[in-house]
DNA sequence: TATATTTATCGTAATATTGCGATAGATATG
DNA sequence: CATATCTATCGCAATATTACGATAAATATA
């Protein structure tokens, strides 16, 4: 079918899975890392930096925007992107909570 | 095309994206959380717990196994799954490193 | 106003993912 | 040995993702 059965999972599980999905592509990882490295807004340099077509990058930026991770500000003919600190914190905390839940107890088979 | 251009990204970026992908489905999140909650191996109870068909769960387990996150031990007619502590730690550290890299500097547009 | 620059969107093709029924394979149990 | 139980795999259908050329929309510049 190809359609995830979200209704049988909790909101938290669905949300966490969606967060993972937002970052489950090397281009989106690279975009985020580029924004972090720049320590500021990045206005249109992304197409030169990554080796993907402009349309493709625009699509990935849209997904990151939909995920809330980045925000774009129109600046003349170009658009400046930066990370949304608030959402970033939410992601960080959700991931931390998930990974901290497991403690190795050495009682495994 | 539908084929990710891994060759234009770094190994780390590709690996991190793949890690995210392994957890980018609520069923796989639920399976991992179930293993954590059990604090031990889980042998075949997963099909009853989740509302998915046996074939579907087997497929998700396979993906988690391919990702290295879980390991299965044959126990009679059933298979017991548990989290691989070593790989879990690697995931945790990779995610931590990624999220720690960004510091909000309030110099955004 | 005409042209250049930049980004978003549309349409399309190729591939991947999700889900499940059917079935095969392995190991218990009668 | 026959049967039951449990898991993996195959095959299929529906949907999603990835990538890109073409084009539209918006703004700057000559």
Instruction: Please provide the count of β strands of chain A.
Output: 3
The share of residues in helices of chain A is 40-55%
What's the overall geometry of chain A? elongated
Largest sheet composition of chain A = 3 strands, antiparallel
Cα-to-Cα separation, first versus last residue of chain A: 35 Å
CATH class of chain A: Mainly Alpha
CATH level-four homologous superfamily name of chain A: Winged helix-like DNA-binding domain superfamily/Winged helix DNA-binding domain
The radius of gyration of chain A is: 17 Å
Determine the CATH topology of chain A. Answer: Arc Repressor Mutant, subunit A
Write down the domain tally of chain A.
1
Neighbour order of strands in the largest sheet of chain A: 1-3-2
What structural class should be given to the helix and strand makeup of chain A? alpha+beta
Q: Based on the coordinates given, report the CATH architecture of chain A.
A: Orthogonal Bundle
Beta-strand residue percentage of chain A:
5-15%
Give me the strand/helix succession of chain A.
HHEHHEEH
In oligomeric terms, what are we looking at? homodimer
Report what the structure shows:
The structure is a homodimer of 109-residue chains. By secondary structure, chain A is α+β, with helices and mostly antiparallel strands. Chain A has a single domain, classed as Arc Repressor Mutant, subunit A (Orthogonal Bundle), CATH 1.10.10. In chain A, 53% of the residues lie in helices and 13% in strands. The first copy, chain A, has 5 helices and 3 strands. Chain A has helices at residues 11-22, 26-38, 46-49, 54-66, 85-100, and strands at 42-43, 70-75, 78-83. A 3-stranded antiparallel β-sheet of chain A has the order 1-3-2. In chain A, strand 2 (70-75) and strand 3 (78-83) form a beta hairpin. The N and C termini of chain A lie far apart (35 Å). Chains A and B meet through helix 1, helix 2, strand 3 and helix 5 of A and helix 1, helix 2, strand 3 and helix 5 of B. The structure holds a DNA duplex (30 and 30 nucleotides).
